Every structure is written in structure tokens, then in C-alpha cells.
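Quiz preparation item.
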């Protein structure tokens, strides 16, 4: 692949920006265009559910820096709507088309909406994914709602609840699982998260669902009716039901893509429906589904900040025609701040059949837990105890036996537990 031509990047967020920079670093000197559905230049999303809601960080302060000169054209506020691979043209929502010689798909995700559109349009009902979403929610919180209801006890839901308590607002989380984050951490660590939030005054309603939202007669949300028959009065609702990957625009392109992501090979090249890689197209970030070698080639799509950076840099080198190195195999890493506690993780907990508290004590609030599967270490999670995490990341990458580190400081008896993930 030559060093010139026209490279188009669909997605003007973190992965798109870092992918563009990687292409320039790798010697691509041709025309470069970044297409983004949002009107903003790339910004840092982790602040949106944390410091931006509490007012500690302004919207302007979330802008991501350019690390290298891009000399790029920005097509912002215009989503991609179609892909013609035969003629190598991209269709945009404004009716125009863009030719490309190489294409990076970094289209990311959007917030999963409330399933009833009419209820989702009620005033006071919010989702949180974009900077504009965060600004609107921040304004609603500052207005002093009587009660905030958060539907979903995942990471975003828990972080928003934490921000509400920082603002001294009454808040309730409704979570269908037994405890918050049970699907990711299991019941043992999910119970630690539950206790953390309850100690700060968050009301948790686990094991039930919101059946419907009702208004006050004027089009504003007033309450939620739960599956157990109870009602919760709330004039501000945050729908935190996860994310939807932006792949609809690829329908009819012949690429292998669905709501779970766009399929890539081990190097990041996107696969056609016939299973063959398209050497002119790569994907990176939340939307890319790829076989992870640390998890026996299981296809995963990861919504992690560090992963978006690392995979985009790998894809950028690939599209620039440089040697990308070995197949992409970064150890997944993630962090969350809630209730004054920083939770960090490395690896993926899915499929774990064993859990051990490796350092510290959950009762003291500072500890590290390691997850195993079939006798191998696959993930580690720390609560305000991240200094051990790099050592466990090395063990995960080395496919070390479970548990991988013994005789370390602050280590107890290493009792092996069932992670207790809820049944699907």
C-alpha cells in the first residue's frame, strides 16, 4: 500500500484520532479525512459520567490533544450512512459521498435508549454517552430534582449515582441483577460495590426491573412502575442500559457486521461476509470485534479507553502500510471512580470459574481479587489497590496458572471462591 492516496476515518473520537495520528507517524502522507456524527472535535469520555456531572470539569476541558500534526479534513456533525466497497465510496448523512483508498472504521457506540420511545421522550429522561448528553444531565442535576432514578447498575449507572450523592441528591438505582455489576464482577465483588453505594446514601433496588415510566400529565417523567409492583417517584431518570454499536450503516456493504460489532481478523483487517479480509479496511475501538489470543481466540468487542488507543494505533500502522507487528493482543484494562473508590481491572472476567482475594481485605475497602478459568489466571480487579495490578497483567499475558502470585505482601490464605456470576 502506497504512502499516499485518500484515507477516511469514520469516527472522530478517541480511536479515530489516535488511528489518524498513527497513520501519520507511520509515514502516510496522503489526504486524510475524519468523519464524525457529533459536532465536536475528539474529547475524553471518562469525565462525562464523573467530574463533568459534579461540575469539577467543564465541557471545554474534555478536549483531547492532538499528539502529532494531522493535516486533516474534518467532516463533523455528519454521520456515515453507507459503504460501497466495490467503488470504494462512503455515503454521508448530508447526501455527499467520499472516495477512499483505505478506511478505518472507528464508529464507536451510542447509548442504548429506553425501549418505549414515547416514555423515553418524556422531559427528565436522559441517556449518557456524548458530551452534549453530559451537559444536559449536568444542567438537570443542578436544577435540584426531588429524586434521581437510575435504570441499570452497571459502571455508568454506578458512576452517575456517585455523582448524585456528591451533589447531595437523593438517588435510586434499579438493577435486575442481585447486586450492581454482578455480570462483570460476580456477586462477591458486586456486593462490595453495593455496600459502598449504600454507605453513601444510594438506595439500591436489586432483583427488579422498571416496567414503565409515567408522566405528570404535562409530558414530564414523574415515576417508574417496577416489575414487583412498587413505584418510585422520580422527576429525573437516567437510562443506563449499556451501549449499541454503530454498525447499521454497514448494511449491504458485504462486511461481516451486526449489533455486536464489525468482525476483524487478528490484525484488525475487517472481514467480508465470505470470511476474507479486506486489506483496505481496518476497525478499532468499541465497534471492532476481534479474536483475542489471550482468551483462546474468542471474539470480543471492548469498550475500554486504553484498548481504543492501543488498537487504533495498531490499525493506523496497518493501514499506512507499515509492519504492524504481531497480532493485536493487548491485555484489556479498565478503571472506574465511584464513591471515592477507584476500581481498576486487567483482563476479562467472562468465563471465570474461580475467584481469590489475592491482596488486602474487602472489609477494609482496599484489596485485589484475581479471577481464574480452567486453572489459568484471566483477570484481576483492584479496589483502591492498583499497585499490584501491573504484576497481574504480566501474569495474565503469560497465561500463568491460577492464582499466579503467592507469598506476596498483604496476602491472606487465598481461599478459592466461586465468582457467583448470575445466570444469563
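Solution:
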Amino acid at each position: 500500500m502506497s504512502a499516499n492516496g485518500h484515507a477516511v476515518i469514520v469516527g472522530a473520537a478517541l480511536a479515530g484520532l489516535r488511528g489518524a495520528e498513527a497513520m501519520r507517524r507511520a509515514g502516510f502522507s496522503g489526504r486524510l479525512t475524519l468523519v464524525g456524527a457529533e459536532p465536536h472535535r475528539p474529547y475524553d469520555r471518562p469525565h462525562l459520567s464523573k467530574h463533568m456531572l459534579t461540575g469539577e470539569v467543564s465541557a471545554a476541558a474534555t478536549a483531547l490533544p492532538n499528539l502529532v500534526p494531522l493535516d486533516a479534513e474534518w467532516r463533523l456533525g455528519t454521520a456515515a450512512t453507507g459503504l460501497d466497497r466495490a467503488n470504494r465510496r462512503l455515503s454521508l448523512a448530508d447526501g455527499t459521498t467520499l472516495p477512499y483508498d483505505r478506511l478505518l472504521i472507528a464508529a464507536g457506540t451510542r447509548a442504548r435508549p429506553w425501549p418505549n420511545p414515547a416514555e423515553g421522550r418524556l422531559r427528565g429522561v436522559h441517556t449518557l454517552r456524548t458530551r452534549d448528553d453530559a451537559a444536559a444531565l449536568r444542567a438537570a442535576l443542578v436544577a435540584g430534582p426531588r429524586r434521581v432514578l437510575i435504570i441499570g447498575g452497571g459502571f455508568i449507572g454506578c458512576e452517575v449515582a456517585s455523582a448524585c450523592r456528591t451533589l447531595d441528591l437523593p438517588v435510586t438505582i434499579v438493577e435486575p441483577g442481585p447486586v450492581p455489576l454482578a455480570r462483570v464482577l460476580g456477586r462477591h465483588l458486586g456486593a462490595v460495590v453495593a455496600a459502598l453505594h449504600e454507605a453513601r446514601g444510594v438506595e439500591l433496588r436489586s432483583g427488579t426491573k422498571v416496567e414503565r415510566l409515567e408522566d405528570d400529565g404535562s409530558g414530564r417523567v414523574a415515576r417508574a412502575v417496577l416489575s414487583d409492583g412498587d413505584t418510585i417517584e422520580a422527576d429525573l431518570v437516567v437510562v443506563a442500559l449499556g451501549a449499541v454499536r454503530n454498525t447499521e450503516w454497514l448494511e449491504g456493504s458485504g462486511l461481516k457486521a451486526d449489533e455486536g460489532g464489525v468482525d476483524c481478523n487478528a490484525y484488525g483487517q475487517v472481514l467480508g461476509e465470505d470470511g476474507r479480509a479486506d486489506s483496505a479496511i481496518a476497525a478499532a475501538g468499541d465497534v471492532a470485534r476481534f479474536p483475542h489470543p489471550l482468551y483462546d481466540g474468542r471474539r470480543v468487542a471492548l469498550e475500554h479507553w486504553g484498548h481504543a488507543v492501543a488498537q487504533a494505533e495498531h490499525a493506523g500502522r496497518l493501514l499506512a502500510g507499515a509492519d504492524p507487528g504481531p497480532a493485536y493482543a493487548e491485555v484489556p484494562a479498565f478503571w472506574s471512580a465511584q464513591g471515592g473508590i477507584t476500581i481498576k481491572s486487567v483482563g476479562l472476567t467472562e468465563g471465570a470459574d474461580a475467584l481469590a482475594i489475592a491482596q488486602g481485605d474487602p472489609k477494609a475497602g482496599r484489596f485485589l481479587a484475581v479471577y481464574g478459568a480452567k486453572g489459568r489466571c484471566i483477570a484481576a480487579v483492584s479496589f483502591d489497590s492498583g499497585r499490584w495490578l501491573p504484576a497481574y497483567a504480566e501474569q495474565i499475558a503469560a497465561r500463568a496458572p491460577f492464582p499466579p502470585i503467592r507469598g506476596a505482601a498483604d496476602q491472606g490464605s487465598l481461599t478459592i471462591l466461586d465468582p457467583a456470576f448470575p445466570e444469563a
